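#random but structural
TW: two for the price of one
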Amino acid sequence: MPLDPQLAALLAAPADDAAPPASFAERRALFASELAAIDRPGPAIAQEHAITLSTRNRPLDARLFRPAMPASSNRPVMLFFHGGGWIQGSSATHASLCRHLAHHGGFDLLSVDYRLAPEHPFPAAFEDALDALRWLYEDGAGAELHSPDIVVAGDSAGGNLAAAVCLAAPGEGLPAPQAALLLYPALDLANRTGSRETFGRGYWLDTLDELIAHYVPTPAQRLAAEASPALAPTLAGFPPTMLVTAGHDPLRDEGIAFAVRLMADGVRCTLANEASMIHGFLSLHGAIPAAERRLIAIAQQFGRFVRAD
């Protein structure tokens, strides 16, 4: 299916002739400013504020979102990990997306700022993600995050972290999350799929190999399930999962293959391939009406998915 026409027009806009960022700090600032330029605030929510998680290894900054709906002691809690290729992004860059997920899905949502590569390569981000899940189980009640239904979610690199903690939690003595929402996740950092060969350049994902190398510099480490969840020997016991891919995305094929494996291993899984979209399309909801419609629908569908479990 061809690209959504408005998305194609956005991608065809003349590129900025400015020199490329000279440092990772500049690269992160540019990423944030580009998203802010096309962003919209999203739906009104009841509460949004910064919070610090006192985890066993280090404090982690996070942002808490509560929807404007009647409070409930059993409203599901979503632990969200932002995308950005493991090198950029934050709870701030993804705040509007999180407001949509919280409001339309009916979740108390905790978005975590994990350590970024290359200053903090693998397994730093994974360890932070796992520590955040442990904090939620052990100390979340102190922040009135006391639902028995804890779910994880993430987009792109954040989807990688969400999947990795689902696999790792039982071995760490933690309950597995009740469900997972994986949005165009990076799941296999060691192998090239057909879609990665087709779409691995352009469409705002110019150098996937570079991003992977910054996060997991050693090729042998990319074979570990903590880095490449798709390489886990079994997915039996993985939480019920809703997985979203995009038709024009380097990560499309590994997402579809992961969903097929989940179903083969007896895991309840819903797969939605948004055929006319690109990687990261949900972050474009402020500029692309079709992306906003899909974001709302995905949030609502996942809310129903969790409550039906």
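TW: number two ↓
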Amino acid sequence: MRQKVQEQAQPWLSGWNALTGNGRAQLGAKPRPLATVIRGDVPGQNFAQFYIDVARAYQLALRWKVSQDTRYADLAVVFLNEWSSTLKEVTGNADRFLAAGIYGYEFANAAEIMRTYPGWAPADFARFQTMMLDIFYPLNNQFLTIHNGTQYSSYWANWDQCSMASILAIGVLCDRPDIYDEAISYYKAGQGNGAGLQAVYYVHPGYLGQWQESGRDQGHCTLGIGLAGAFCEMAWNQGDDIYGYENNRFLAGAEYVAKTNLRDGTGAFYTMPYFTNVNKQGKQAELSTGAQGHRRGIWESVHNHYANRLGIATPYTALQAIQMRPEGDGGKGDELGFGTLTFTRDPLPTAGRPSGLTARLRGTQVVLSWWGCTGAQSYSVRRAERAGGPYSVIASGITDALTFNDTALSATGVYHYVIIAATASGDSAPSSEARVSVAPELLLQWKPDGGARTPVRLPTGLAKNTADFTVSVRVFLDSAATWARVFDFGSGTRRYMMLTVRNGGGVVRYGISTVHGFNEEGIDGTSALATGRWVHVAVTLSGTLGTLYVDGVVDGTNAQMTLTPADLGETTQNWLGHSQFPQDPDLQGRVDDLRFYSGALGATEIAALAKA
């Protein structure tokens, strides 16, 4: 930053001018510390006084870091010291958790800049660390642990996200790897709506990742992008690539929110794909137009990481960054601001190549999605019948969205796909190859001699990236307890696919959900599974048609199944005879010959398995 500003290079200079021209970044201000910060619709609410001083401390620290003018450092230290020697608690209604999360991570970032300043006495720095550990961290931890005494899905994504960001920042500032790891672990495995898989509620073809709050309003969506972006950047600076988690899932969310709030060439907002969101707050059946077009200065960090660090195209995030440039003050305290100054990077000197290609069988087609690369003008899809080629072009001139449905399939075909970008200097290198077999393939077979008592734990991630599928298993029930599982593949109650011997209605049921059961899609049979004998059960999905078989005979169907195993992410708890829900009983009986296939076996094949 300092070098770019000294060279008067753009857009760094405009970002610097936005900082130096902002009222909160000036000398002469005095801190207004409080013993008690209150946020929420309660008497005495005063949190604005706090976030204004947090912003002043950060902006003064940033001015010092770029200019090396110690007057700004000295004043930043005054703000940090006054608050750390005065503040005793953050309180209010449930909004106290927002205050502790948002302003907690922001204050920690201001202090992190200043920790190398010789003028900040070690004892004063230690007192600031103690304040963060004793006042902010307990509230952050409490929220992620018990969600204010409610169910995990009771709060929208941004509540989790601000608490995670604060915990991560405190872990860094206080040299506490245990606290830092707590935040990373929650991002990957947390059960609340702000963890990585839940915050991006559903990824549409072409990697448009519908945000968890997209059915609520757009202001909270952009808030979530800002919080998640801060989290990813802090983790990146510690050597952890959360940006890339689950095939750049955060970028998918950022592109969706960015595009939702941009207008197309006709002046209308883009038409967006939308998957109905059902959660503790109810059902959001359509994209919310509340505050659509919302502008927030949080896009530079996202765009510059993916495009200018990695060479991944960010078409809609880039447009948002351009229209907000230079990013200014965080306004009402929701973000630190000034990202044009702090995050802009020079573009990579050469074009990259497409990446992240997935190819998933859905009925009679293979659905391909990929990440584009900077410098690309269009993309072509190439297919071969053996690994490594030779490839033939099956589609070209693709610009947006980056997805293609291959319908020219043989029933026994095995296909290998790559994507190549057309750039100004010629074709790019190909993407990594993705393989699909149209005929079902056995991915896992578990077959103990004579069956095994349950529960049994199966390998992690056994269903990852599978769309159409078959699960086949034999079960011998001593009893058919309500909600006892034949199998349950998932990662806690947040995401699972399961088969229960008897649901609340008394019949066998297959179900799949990505939100604690609130959006469960399922197939009901006609009765509970029989006891006292071996029963063969199978579930298949072909396109949107789900079929449940009992003893080789169709026992139930659902032609509107949208969710697939690929939507579950990395399932870490894959069970036979045990549920993700702790209140459900374990299966009483034995299981045998569990088979998991990519692709849907036909009725004749299922009947043959049942008789084998």
